[in-house]
Amino acid sequence: MKSTIFKILKVLLCGIAMNLLLASKTTAQYMVNGKEVDTTFNSAMNHIFGTLDATRIPYGLLRDYAMEFRNLENFNGTALVDSNKVDKGVFRQIYTTLATARMTASAYASLPNPGAIDSLWYNARVPGQVTLSGLFYQYSYLSRAGLLSTMVTPITPPAAGAAMPA
Fold first, then answer.
1. What single DSSP character describes residue 61?
2. Chain-wide mean pLDDT for the chain?
3. Cross-strand pairs, 32
4. What CA–CA distance (Å, rounded) separates 135 from 91?
5. What is the helix (H) or strand (E) element at residue 82, kind and residue range?
6. Can you tell me the distance from the alpha carbon of 133 to that of 88, in angstroms, rounded to the nearest whole number?
7. Tens digit of pLDDT for each residue in 66-110?
8. Element at 32 (helix H, strand E)
9. Quick one: CA dihedral 109, 110, 115, 118, positive or negative?
């Protein structure tokens, strides 16, 4: 009985220590509306894609640059099935994925900040009418052939916690 309690305490303490360790690895680098924003992913993507010629991205959105909240390939419009049903939550995930794929000024201009969606929906409401919203987009992605050839030279990001080169 006593050894069982010690085992449980050991597991709990290890879990708490792991959580504290993981929490200390998160490095928020600036504040937005009083909240810390972790820019680790963004810094890594900027390092990896920083030398990419953005003028060669036809729509200004590069799927490989994005943080995928939802797999965009499932929503290509070729088939309507249960697995690509879109509700408000899925819509936000798709929109946020696209917003994190923006690499050009025109993409930023044509795809407003995800935080603006609610106010746009609210302003579009009209009493006695049903307001529908949709999302039509085109994005680019790195071709597998390009990655396997000399057209693209992949750069490995630094290890977690390591400083990004300038």
1. B
2. 74
3. 35
4. 8
5. none
6. 10
7. 999 998 888 887 878 888 888 888 989 999 999 999 998 998 888
8. strand 28-32
9. positive
